[in-house]
Structures are given as structure tokens and as C-alpha cells.
# Entry
Amino acid sequence: MEGPAVTIVEVGPRDGLQNEPDVLATHHKLALIERLAAMGATRIEVASFVNPRRVPQMADAEAVVAGLPPRGERRFAAIGLCLNLKGVERALATDGLDEVGCVLVATDTFGIRNQGQSVAEGLAANQAMLRRAAEAGLFPQVTISAAFGCPFEGPVPPARVVDLAERLAEAGAREIALADTIGVAVPQQVTDLVGEVARRLGAGVRLRVHLHDTRGLAPANAWAAWQAGVRVFDSALGGLGGCPFAPRAAGNVATEELIYLFHRSGIATGLSLERALEANAWLAGVLGRALPSRVGRAGDFRREEAA
Ligand code: MG
# Structure
């Protein structure tokens, strides 16, 4: 049986929640992951292994992984996000993850603010992290953050992003995400950058995009990426998220928006919009407010019953 045409990597439990001011209880995070799995998610970013003093929301990363169903009993790959080698070692020590997600910031200023390292330092660190993850048998993947623009340096030269992607591929990355971390990209830029990176990487490395909806163009950018050949997309239930180190960045593109976009375009995702809407309502109840997703509020397109 053929799999869905598009794979959606659900990043809600990590990227979605990380900016929430109130720390969610571990059991709520696990209940969210269970609902995302019921929605049909086959890859879920469950936690990040970062300094708990900098990101208190992620302090229970080990407990979240320990609370997941065992590998043989779950139908999703669990991803642990790591920003340095220490994080990778913590992720590996849980013995419950399938993928290590690394992050390389594409500009010096953002890199230093976000994780205390320049691009060159970040590249060296990521190369070591990817090798370590692969050696331990986990799927090594990496996100190039601020690939479409930096809140501090402005435009990011596409040639630099292409070069970084090539070096990460050489270090063993099996999948590389181009991230519009602050939500500045427009569809033509996505078409151009994705096309350029794909040409240089060849077929051996899969491309993914990670979009934020700060300026309302994330679903349009996802469509441009699809047309440029991308088949893997990050999104967060409800459109939650932001970045503690990126001023004014809004949430991730909502999972509900991507499901709606692709399904109504005749492209299978393997996800259930109905289950996503149920999970949205549940999470809104836990957080005590409506979530940003527009499809989450409006629901699926169907004829209204006559009153
Ligand atoms: Mg993000």
C-alpha cells in the first residue's frame, strides 16, 4: 500500500508549547501526544533537550519520553530536538526516541542569541551531533533556522543556505528542513530557495519545510514548497508556537490548515481533520483560550444544515 503523498511532522508538543507562559503538566503533554497519534501523525516532535533554565517548558523532556508508549506499540516516530552535543547525549540516554532533530541557525547574530554560537561554530557542532545520532542508530535530521530571513540581520543570502545544507548532508543528515522561523517568507522565495537546495542536494537527502504564520502566508508558502517538490512539512496543532529568542514571531503553521489545504487539493496526508479539530478543542480547554488556527475555528468545509 502506498503511503500518503505528504507527511506532516507534528511539532506541537515541542515548538507549539515552548512559548506558552504556563508550564504544562507532563500528563497533559502525554495526553496531547496521544491525541496527535490518534489524528494519524506518524512523526511527532515530543520534546527538546535544552537548558531548562532557558526553556522551562521543556524541563520534563525525559519524563515525557519515559511516558510514551513503547516503540513497538506506537505508530509514530518520536523526535527529540537538540541544540548541542550535550542535548544529543540526553536524548540518546532516554532510549525512547527514533529521531534526533538538530538546529543550525543561518546567521551569526540570531545564532549567538538563540544558542550562543556563530554559524561556523553551529555548523561544527551540528556535524558532530548528526554523526553521534546516526552512530547511535537514530534518524539524523537538521533544521536550518532563519533560512528565509533573520530578525536581526535581515535577508539571508540563499547561497549561504545552500552551502550549509550541503555541509550538513556531508555530515550525514538524512533530512534537512528549511525553516522560516520568524515568518517572513513569500511563496516565490520558497519556490526559489527550495528549488536551489533540492538541485544541489540531489535525491539522497529529503527536504522538509518549517513555516511560521506571522504574516499570514504560511499556507501559501507550504503550497509553493509542495509545487517545488517538498513532501514533508512541520506544523503545530492549533498554530501554537513562536520563538522565545525571535521578537514578534507568531505561531507555527497550523496542522489544521495544512490538512485542509492538502485534502481539498486532492493530496493525502494520512491525518484526520476531524480528529485534529477534536484535539484542538481539547487543547484549547487545557490552555484556557482559543488557539490561533483559522481552520480550527471555522472547521471543515461542509454545507450548513437548514435550521
Ligand atoms: Mg518553529
